[in-house]
Amino acid sequence: MKRLRINTLLSGGTVGQEVAVGGWVRTRRESKGIAFISLSDGSTQDNLQLVIPEGSPAFRNLAHCNTGAAVKAQGILKESPGKGQKFEVEVSALEVFGDADPVLYPLQKKGHTLEFLRELGHLRPRTNTYGAVFRVRNVLAHAVHEFFQERGFMWMHTPIITASDCEGAGDLFTVTAFDLGKSPGSDNGGFDFSQDFFGKHAYLTVSGQLEAEFLAMALGDVYAFGPTFRAENSNTSRHLSEFWMIEPEMAFADLKDDMQLAEDFFHALCKSVLEKCGDEISFLEKFYKRTSVEELKELAVKPFIHVTYTDAVRELERSKEHFEFPVKWGIDLQSEHERYLTDKVFKGPVIVTDYPKEIKAFYMRLNGDDKTVAAMDVLVPKIGEIIGGSQREERLDVLISRMQQTSVPRENLEWYLDLRRFGSAPHAGFGLGFERLVQYITGMPNIRDVIPCPRAPQTIKF
Ligand code: ATP
Ligand code: MN
Question: Considering only CA atoms, which residue is closest to atom 11 of ligand 1?
């Protein structure tokens, strides 16, 4: 008999139906000649109770049904007398595929720390916490596509290996086919990349934006959603070396349109999670007390608060808080400043706009004041920046002079300038770090706990 997933069975099953389920044993107990197994198959936050009466032939297999064992059970769906569960299965046949030695299996009891579980990257998806987080992650990924597809944005696959190194978004990983032990040197002692696979120094991408721009300048509204890489040596709770980024890019759009898109997007994602992952959020709320269903309901409709960089700095200067990094107009906002704004001043997501041009990338559109650019960052409580976006500079002369000022070499970017030479148009977009979003919505304190295989300095075991 083909197995039913526990989520399907709980939502669509009928009493008296014969079913088969497969999963991993969470707990087993016996009482008055009846055995009970609590089974999880990863499809839902709920475990399914299997009831095995003493007389049943299934009873003989129970000895191997330890915590962690993989089993398949067949039986009849019954209304459950226990509270908190709708159904249970009265088992007639029980097959044990792989048992789990009770002395060796590391996930015996609840209550392991997240740090301990990080060392068990291959087993942690079987815990309630990671099961919940990864199901939310999946729902969010789907919701991303749903949101853009419904609005006519085309999903474009921007490259993972690239030669544009000048975006300035962070440190890069080199991609090479050299055998590093015996590769040809160049005059200045480094590698001679002209003899490497691509004939050029190649990197793992830090962002798909520049490519998304030329696609938007042909297709209109597009989005990239793929992995990005940064070799920054930052051991923080919100940085990964490999993370997924969502980057919409819109033709004939300005900063206002961009901010509206970011807000609508954020609201839609919160709504999807509420609709499809209420149990997961409630579970995480109970254990980690960071994000709650109530809070998400509010986030799903609350308009973002808008503040200019200049006003935000004024707010920070006025505060009595002691900051490690002193505040004055022109500084890049540090995480302590961002959190002060979201957690203490505005108490919710905030969009900060119009940053000084000196601290932002060369491609952001210069404002009329000649000092600031049409940039926007979305900051959220507890985490800080989750979205960074801007209207792009569409004027050729301004872009060239910004590149000169910021020492961005032109030779690799003539194609980018072409977009301003031929049929240039106002356009705008943003980048949202997918893991930061999952982190914010699930309330997980560390970004390493929202991706199955986190990559960070000195971290690549799984
Ligand atoms: P931060 O200042 O927090 O390092 P950033 O300014 O480097 O961020 P951008 O280059 O604007 O970020 O990237 C766009 C988005 O990608 C950010 O808003 C954030 O959500 C996400 N992001 C950036 N770096 C990382 C990282 N190392 N790990 C996970 N997400 C990241
Ligand atoms: Mn960064």
Answer: 388
Q: Which of 207, 229, 243 to mutate to test the pocket of ligand 1 (most atoms within 8 A of CB)?
A: 243
CA 398 to ligand 1 centroid distance, Å: 26
- At 400-442, the pLDDT tens digits run 999 999 999 898 899 999 999 999 999 999 999 999 999 999 9
Closest residue by CA, ligand 1 atom 10: 169
Instruction: Name residue 252's amino acid.
Output: F
The pLDDT of residue 184 is: 79
Euclidean distance between CA atoms 455 and 461, whole angstroms: 9
Q: Which helix (H) or strand (E) segment is 280 a member of?
A: helix 278-288
Is 118 exposed, middle or buried, given 0-12, 13-18 or 19+ CB atoms closer than 10 A?
A: middle
Nearest Cα neighbor of 244 from 230, 224, 228 is: 228
Q: Which residue has the tokens 């915590």?
A: 67
CA-CA distance, 391 to 29, in Å (whole number)? 61
Mean model confidence pLDDT for the chain: 94
Q: Residues, the chain, total? A: 462
Give pLDDT < 50 ranges for the chain: none
**Distance in angstroms (rounded) separating the CA atoms of residues 74 and 90:** 8
Residues with CB under 6 A from ligand 1: 169-170, 230, 239-240, 243, 245, 385-388, 431-433, 435-436
Q: Which residues of 302-315 are buried (b: 16+ CB within 10 A; e: fewer)?
A: eebbebebbebbeb
DSSP secondary structure of 370-397: SSEEEEEEEEETTTEEEEEEEEB---HH
**Mutation test residue for ligand 1: of 247, 385, 434, the one with most atoms within 8 Å of CB:** 385
Instruction: Give the gyration radius of the chain's Cα atoms.
Output: 26
3-state secondary structure of 293: helix
| pLDDT tens profile 48-100 | 999 999 888 888 889 889 999 999 999 999 999 877 788 999 999 999 999 99
